[in-house]
Design brief:
single chain, mainly alpha, Serine Threonine Protein Phosphatase 5, Tetratricopeptide repeat
């Protein structure tokens, strides 16, 4: 099994090597184009051709590595964690000319560890991704922040979770990211007792819950029901409670979120 420290160190090493190789190949190609004609044109042409072949070969291998990295996310969603682990490990071990493949593989490993409820490892991996210059993968920072916040909540680090998800309020989020942010924020608010805040735009939150998977939708509406009860809005609380219980058994809800035992 791939350890977190090994994955992060391998990723950082490969990112450095790939950046150095890209610089060397680019510098050599520019030298052939601008300096080579003043010396021996045939040799510079041969070197330029060799550089092109090397670049195309490495790009092809990088594309194969990218396919492995992309496949791992669907395997995680399907619950095939062992196969996903193998794909991620192969993608991390394979050399890639481009940094996107390595960062995506590290992010997918964080997704896998989160699905496995290995939250300290998840947090370490997310911080490693966020510590990198993401460039064209800037959108990856939002997903990593959401995973990090959820992992820290499960670890009981409320301050760390707040610092992770709060900056996302200033970001332009997709619908999926907005839904996940709502789930994380409701979980956080229930832990700190921010009941009135949870009930702001409550009907919009209920509508968003209808877009969520069954388990998550039930938890969200149960948390809103608890907030309504704490705020003295008993009719709203009972309505939300019945909606949640139609989706998931009450004992399962309490098992998922112990605070719901108050309902």
């Amino acid at each position: 099994m791939l350890t977190v420290d090994t994955a992060i160190s391998r990723c950082r090493r490969d990112l450095t090597l790939s950046a150095l190789l890209r610089f060397v190949l680019t510098a050599a190609a520019l030298a052939c184009l601008f300096v080579g004609p003043f010396f021996t044109g045939a040799i510079s042409g041969f070197v330029l051709t060799a550089i092109g072949v090397i670049w195309v070969t490495l790009s092809y291998r990088s594309a194969r590595s990218s396919q492995m990295a992309q496949a791992s996310s669907s395997l995680i969603a399907a619950g095939q964690w062992d196969r996903a682990e193998q794909q991620i490990e192969q993608a991390l071990r394979a050399f890639s000319l481009f940094r996107t493949n390595k960062l995506l593989s590290l992010h997918h490993l964080a997704l896998l560890r989160h699905a496995q409820s290995r939250y300290p490892e998840t947090a370490t991996l997310c911080r490693a991704v966020l510590g990198q210059r993401l460039g064209s993968l800037k959108g990856l920072s939002k997903s990593s922040r959401l995973i990090l916040a959820d992992a820290l909540l499960e670890m009981g680090d409320l301050r760390g979770a707040y610092e992770a998800f709060f900056p996302l309020h200033n970001e332009r989020l997709s619908l999926g990211e907005a839904v996940q942010l709502l789930v994380t924020e409701l979980d956080y608010s229930s832990r700190v007792g921010a009941w009135d805040h949870m009930l702001q735009n409550v009907m919009t939150k209920v509508q968003l819950a209808e877009l969520m998977p069954t388990q998550t939708a039930a938890i969200v509406q149960a948390l809103l029901s608890l907030a309504a009860r704490k705020a003295g809005r008993m009719d709203l609380s009972e309505w939300l409670k019945r909606r949640a219980e139609l989706l998931v058994d009450r004992q399962e809800l309490v098992r998922q979120k112990a605070v719901l035992g108050e309902l």
